[in-house]
Amino acid sequence: MKILCFNGPNLNLLGQRDSSIYGKITLGEIEDLLNKRARKLGVEITFFQSNSEGELIDTLQREAPDAGGLIINPGALTHYGLSLSDALRDSRLPIIEVHISNIYSREDWRAKSVVSPVALGQISGLGWQGYLYAFDYLTRHLQEET
Asked: Which domains does the chain have, with CATH numbers?
């Protein structure tokens, strides 16, 4: 089983951004934690981060045929990434949308997600742990489907 974990704009700056919103952990540290969990379960996990919507889409289209599911934190593309939303839908993968901060308790414009309609579910506001919860749910979901 292969799971993709994609991150959108500015998530490469985790650990440097406002720690009161995004915490102190880096994206690399989150990837290390997910890799450890994946190895324990015998799951392959592929990570990708880009500040470019087009690069996210190109990589999704290339990787999706060999993947069972996707964890995605689209960053600001959550709110306006319509072409990313279309590509996610076209991938036909089960998707879990993750946000470190609670997008519903911040600026009004952050409460609208164009990704949620194509996702199985969303984890928002639980910090970096949201990635682990998404991974756990998605692996169970994929095991139940087989």
From this structure: 2-145 (3.40.50.9100)
